[in-house]
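Progress against Task 2.4 (sequence-to-structure conversion) is shown through the following example record, which the project officer requested during the mid-term review.
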Amino acid sequence: MSEPIPTTPSATPNEANPGVYNGLVMKVVYTIWVHGISHRLAWGLSNQWIRRSYRVWSGPVHLSIGPGNGRFLHHLPRRVRELHLMDINTKCLSMATRALYRRPVAVHGHRQDVLDVWRDLPEESVDSIDCMMVIHCLRGASLQDKLSFLAEAHRVLAQGGVFFGATVLAGGEGVKVNRFARLLMKIYNGRKNTFCNTGDTFTDLDALVRTYFPKADIRVQGCTGTIVAVKA
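Structure tokens generated for the chain above:
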């Protein structure tokens, strides 16, 4: 068993955003605007890559951080028998839970700031973790301020487990920010509790992830950094 790397919770806590994460937006707008338009035209992220990641990397006990409206959770494989959902927005937790009501899986919701200590999850208690398009929303002037998030992910993930996800980057080597992406980031970073990624670069993402997960594959799609990391 590897020793956890000490850290402390962030000094800039996150807050819920009911203006964005409410029933109307999540049901009517979210899939079309976020998954359909923004992923493809702004962030350059392949939804096919997301779907494949859920199918390939998810283990029997899985933790989904920031599940949104639960759309991509439909691609979890049948081997997933226990699912933990973590979000600070209650509507995301309730919608993601309802999206899986026909699946034979035990679902547990955890409402909390992911930059705080994950008190409900013991050490090495999950087989896989996804954090799909969440890190760019976490508070912090840079990725370094989001360190506690990766520390907790490393702590609760079992040996050999996989941490996978993606995040929007503001720049860095190989990152291609088109005009649409630049406009959206300007708008979203100007709104409270929406984006907070003006200091997020690929170089910092790569270094930060490898601090906790040396065995990691970190790549760029458009202006998105994708992560597949194994806890060795």
